[in-house]
Amino acid sequence: MWLFLAFLAVPLIEIALFIQVGGAIGLMPTLAIVILTAIAGTWLVRNQGAMAMGNLRRSFSELNDPTEPLAHGAMILIAGALLLTPGFFTDAVGFSLLMPPVRVAVMSYARKRIKVQKFSMGHMGGQAGQHSYDPRRETADDVIDGDFAEVDPDKKPTHGPSGWTKH
Predict the structure, then answer these.
(1) What Rg do the C-alpha atoms of the chain give, in angstroms?
(2) DSSP label at 157?
(3) 10 Å Cβ neighbour count for 6?
(4) Residue 48 · residue 20 · CB < 8 Å
(5) What span, in angstroms and rounded, lies between the C-alpha atoms of 9 and 6?
(6) What is the pLDDT of residue 12?
(7) Count of beta carbons in the 10 Å neighbourhood of residue 17
(8) Residue in 100, 14, 81 with CA at minimum distance from that of residue 41
(9) CA dihedral 126, 132, 135, 140 (to 10 degrees)
(10) Has residue 83 got a pLDDT over 80?
(11) What backbone phi and psi angles, to 5 degrees, belong to 96?
């Protein structure tokens, strides 16, 4: 029901704003504003998206929870779609989603309404879902099992290095 109302209300709001702004400043300035906001929005989305991707990569490399960087990236993506949609209302919502404090506020609101049942990163052996890795709870019992073969140091290889590794 809410989605239906949004699809009904947003075009009506946009039409009303186009009529009001176009009547106040004229057709050409109104079209110029729409085009300039699309160009500025594209540039801002590109820069903010690159920063969000960097934060996401950093959270993966540090084995942190990627939920927040993913949510920020999703909001930046939605902002980009809204900024490319012609209209003043969608531009206002899109530009507001590009502001980090607004995204943080949306995230805190979403955290209050969404409960995460389980979070795990990777597969650590055994059955799926049996063990979830949390680096803060790492103990001496976390052992990586492996096999090895001792190489005789006197035996020389019969061929040179492949070039894939440094020697």
Answers:
(1) 26
(2) P
(3) 10
(4) no
(5) 5
(6) 93
(7) 17
(8) 81
(9) -40
(10) yes
(11) -65, -35
Report the distance separating Cα 12 and Cα 91, nearest Å: 15
CA 62 to chain centre: 16
Q: What is the mean pLDDT of residues 20-32?
A: 92
Give 105-161 pLDDT, tens digit per residue.
Answer: 999 998 888 877 776 666 554 444 445 555 666 665 666 777 877 777 776 667 776
Identity of the amino acid at 69: P
Burial 45-59, CB ≥16 within 10 A → b, else e? beebbeebeebbeeb
Lookup result for tokens 């540039």: 43
Residues 6 or more apart whose CB falls under 8 angstroms from that of 82 comprise 90, 91, 93, 94, 97
Residue 147 DSSP class:
-
What pTM does this model have? Answer: 0.64
- Dihedral sign, Cα of residue 91, residue 92, residue 93, residue 94: positive
DSSP letter string, 95-142: HHHTSHHHHHHHHHHHHHH--------S--SSSTTS----GGG--TT-
Which amino acid, 145? Answer: D
Token pair listed for 67: 């939920």
The C-alpha atoms of residue 125 and residue 143 are separated, in whole angstroms, by 11
